[in-house]
Structure formats: structure tokens, C-alpha cells
Amino acid sequence: MTTTFRGRSRLLIVTVIVLVGIAPMALAQSHSVFVPPSLAVLSYFEGDVRVDAEKAALGQTIPYGSLVQCAADSYAEITMGTGNVMRIRENSVIVVEVTRAARRVELRAGTFAAVLNNLSSDAFGDTPGFFLRTRGAVAGVRGTSFFASVESPNSTYICTCNGSLSLNHESFPAFSTNYYHHGARRFVTAPDGSVTVEVAPLLYHTDEQMEELAARIGATIPWSDSY
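Now predict its structure.
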């Protein structure tokens, strides 16, 4: 199934279960900006991983707005609070913006996987939820497992591995996907600004990889063939 929408924008928004408004990220104080402490921690990595161009250290906190890069044959896992874990693989670049008031990751290149089991207000204050942004996408989450890949500057792949996603683009209304065992969409922006949404096969990730990621936080994924 392929659907084409006309529009000038190239921004795709992917919202997982509930799109929650993001509270202000910083409070101005005199001539400086106060940013609340980050809740993102580099819990595991292999290979050449950099945080703001510096070599990564196991267990380090990822400051708000930091650039995290994985070189070839490298990958990194980042925990967010308790019960949430994210993974980027080789040749991936993300910007991490995680505090009690804002939980966002921008995927600039490569792949991103997440198992998010605890985005409650108890864990994150008054604004539970999570957002994933790519050059063509943003994902807002409230408890689910999903995968994303920036295939090219004009192509984004999003898989709802287990849970629900609300998929948005500025040029068309939001629509939802609900899957318990993978359901993917590809969003392609043409030169004229139109966006084609296609049903896509399972690519770039497997059940075993998602299960391994879930095990990092002591969780299991409740796969099912029904949705």
C-alpha cells in the first residue's frame, strides 16, 4: 500500500501512543541558561563512541544537547531513567536531549532502537513521553518498542515493533499503527515536496536484537501475531 500526500514540508512526525507536549527546556537566568540535570546515561558501548567529539566513558551522564557518534564496528546503549533503554549502531549520530522536562533524541544518521517501559509521570515529572526526530521524523513515545533508520536524506524507515505509533507529517493528518510483532512504514519525500508513505518489510533489525535490548532493563517483549 502506497499513499502520496502533497506538501512543501519535509518534516515527518512519528508519535508513539501519546504525543505529549514538551515543557520548556531551559530557564533563563541573568545572562546564562539553566538546563536541568540529564537522566541519560551511557550504560554500555563497544568500539569508537564519542560524546561531543570526546571519547566516551562507561557510565557517564549524557548532558542535554550532546552529540553521540558511533563509528564503524561500534555501538552504544543509553539508559533513560529506570526501565528505558536506547541503542544506536555503527555509523550512527544522535543528539540527546533528556531531562525530567524534555525527553528527545534526534537521529541524524544511522539507526535507533528503543524499549521504553517506564515513561510515567513518577519517573519524569509532569510531562511523560518521548520523542524521536529525524531529518524527516519525530517520535513521541509512552511505552513501546520501536526501530528507526535514516535510509537517505529523503527516506525514513520506522517500525512499530511492539506497541502503537501515531505517524505525522506537516502535510497530512496523523494516523496510527498498532502492532505486536513488527509493522513498518517508509516515508519518502520527493523533490516537489510530496510525501509517499509505503508499507515496508522487516528490515535492519530482528526479534533477537530487540529482545536482547529489552533484557538490558530486565524486560521481555510480549510478541503476538495479532494486532
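Residues 207-215 form the longest helix (9 residues).
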